[in-house]
Specification:
This protein is an alpha/beta fold. It has three domains: about 35-215, Four Helix Bundle (Hemerythrin (Met), subunit A) (Up-down Bundle); about 220-315, Beta Barrel (Elongation Factor Tu (Ef-tu), domain 3), CATH 2.40.30; about 325-435, Rossmann fold (3-Layer(aba) Sandwich), CATH 3.40.50.80. It is built from 17 helices and eleven strands. β7 (about 325-330), α12 and β8 (about 350-355) form a beta-alpha-beta unit. α4 (about 60-85) runs parallel beside α10. It is globular. The model is unreliable at about 1-30 (pLDDT under 50).
């Protein structure tokens, strides 16, 4: 029996698959909060070389010039992603909230790889002087950079590889960027480094190189706020941690997050934590940790009063200032809403918070939220205990929220429920543009899982048909 993977006669299935892909693309574009300034910045940076290339192309092979342009866009992409990795204040101002900027960081990396691969594959000869020892070394540097990026991208999209291994290998992306810059500087090309295009690219590469040096510098040399753990409060399966400033205080808004590290505990790598309390006059911060992985489990077991923390931030733009809203929290996803509820004024909202948790004993900051609800008539709290009431879904949220037509829905919790709500809530009157969440999955695949599942399904169907025809 032969397994036939031919797709002839399955146009309707392909059409459904195409519609599903288009729908996912639409949702991504609708929900992503990348600022138009960031998209314009990237497009402009990549289009600027076209101002000079037509003149350079005169009398030369067009395919060779196209190969050169691909190489330039790859360098520009790598420089921009190095800039995003710094988490400098300008990053969110240009590209939007950090969670979305990191998504852009990933796609820029994929484009840089694709452009570099095509640049290397076309490999059209151009006139640019005589070969030297440096140009030969630059050729080798370019090959190393390409192969290294291939490995890094494979590790990145293969999400089954442990996070700590990915994080360790990801540090080399800057090294391959430096090799690519060296390749560009000394390779034979149809324009000089001192010409207008050459100087433009030197500026772009210089920005990327400075960003790489910054991200590679020891943490102690990077600006941060030093805090001390002053209170630990076990709540259900989570740990509430109060941090008091040693000197300077972090100024943040409710709903934002910070990168926090604990060098005293050997946990030097900054990890993103939502600040789970409204801004305090004394500068204290609070984060609430759930046992969601190896890092947080180790942190919960090692933290003690007196531990020093290094805080970088704040980041994010999750909270909405005004208008009727429904907040949906699942598990430890209550953390931004605890901060946002604490910052609500008497004329805010109205806001409805639906808190999904296994049972009341597992709820975090519940007494605090109930007190806020009792004091603020524009804030109501519904505790949804899944052990008694079943799993929360879009229909139940719509029923709890009365009408979703003119509301914004903010969500924080597991990605499975989030994806379900993205798909189902529009059926209950919610505009997709009014569904908000933060993408804390810093490392993600590239959306191939759906295609893989589809091909497996088609293979099984053909196998079943073949079996039936043989019998």
């Amino acid at each position: 029996m032969t397994l036939n993977l031919s797709l002839h006669g399955s146009h309707s299935d392909l059409a459904r698959f195409s519609r599903r892909v288009n729908w996912h693309i639409y949702v991504i574009l609708a929900i992503m909060k990348l600022k138009i300034t960031g998209l314009f910045f990237i497009a402009a940076a990549m289009l600027v070389p076209l101002f000079w290339l037509p003149g350079i192309a005169s009398g030369r092979d067009t395919l060779a010039i196209f190969s050169q342009y691909l190489g330039l866009t790859a360098l520009i992409s790598m420089a921009i992603l190095q800039f995003i990795a710094t988490r400098w204040p300008g990053v969110e101002w240009i590209f939007g909230p950090l969670d979305q900027s990191y998504r852009l960081h990933k796609w820029l990396g994929l484009w840089a790889l694709a452009a570099t691969f095509l640049h290397d594959t076309i490999d059209a000869d151009v006139e640019g002087g005589k070969e030297t020892f440096l140009s030969d070394v630059a050729e080798t540097a370019g090959e190393i950079g390409l192969n290294g990026m291939l490995i890094l991208v494979a590790v990145t999209v293969a999400t089954f590889i442990p996070y700590h291994l990915w994080k360790w290998t990801h540090r080399f992306i800057g090294v391959f960027f430096v090799l690519s810059v060296f390749h560009y500087m000394f390779i034979l090309k149809p324009f000089p480094n001192t010409g207008p295009l050459g100087l433009y690219m030197l500026f772009i590469c210089g920005v990327g190189f400075i960003a790489y040096l910054y991200t590679s510098a020891p943490r102690r040399l990077r600006p941060s706020f030093r805090y001390t753990v002053t209170e630990l409060d076990k709540q259900g399966d989570a740990l509430s941690v109060t941090l008091s400033p040693q000197k300077r205080t972090l100024r943040h808004k409710a709903g934002q997050f910070a990168f926090i590290s604990f060098s005293d505990l050997g946990l030097r790598e900054p990890h993103p934590f939502t600040l789970s309390a409204a801004p305090q006059e004394n500068g204290q911060l609070r984060m609430t940790i759930g046992p969601l992985g190896d890092y947080t489990i180790r942190l919960m077991s090692r933290l003690e009063v007196g531990t020093t923390a290094q805080v970088e931030g704040p980041f994010g733009e999750f909270a909405l200032a005004r208008g009727p809203q429904t907040w949906v929290a699942a598990g430890i996803g209550i953390t931004p809403f605890a901060a946002m509820a604490g910052s609500l004024s008497a004329d805010s909202g109205p806001v409805k918070l639906i808190y999904s948790i296994k049972d009341r004993s597992k709820a975090v900051h519940l007494e605090e939220l109930e007190n806020i609800a009792n004091a603020n008539p524009n804030f109501t709290l519904t505790l949804w205990e899944t052990s008694k009431q079943g799993r929360l879904n879009a229909e139940l949220i719509a029923a709890q929220s009365e009408s979703l037509k003119d509301k914004h829905v903010l969500y924080c919790g597991p990605s499975a429920l989030r994806d379900s709500l993205i798909k189902e809530l529009p059926n209950h009157g919610l505009s997709r543009r009014r569904f908000h969440y933060e993408l804390f999955e810093i490392r993600t695949g590239i959306g191939l899982q759906m295609l893989f599942n589809y091909l497996i399904k088609r293979a099984k169907e053909h196998q079943q048909k073949s079996t039936l025809s043989n019998t």
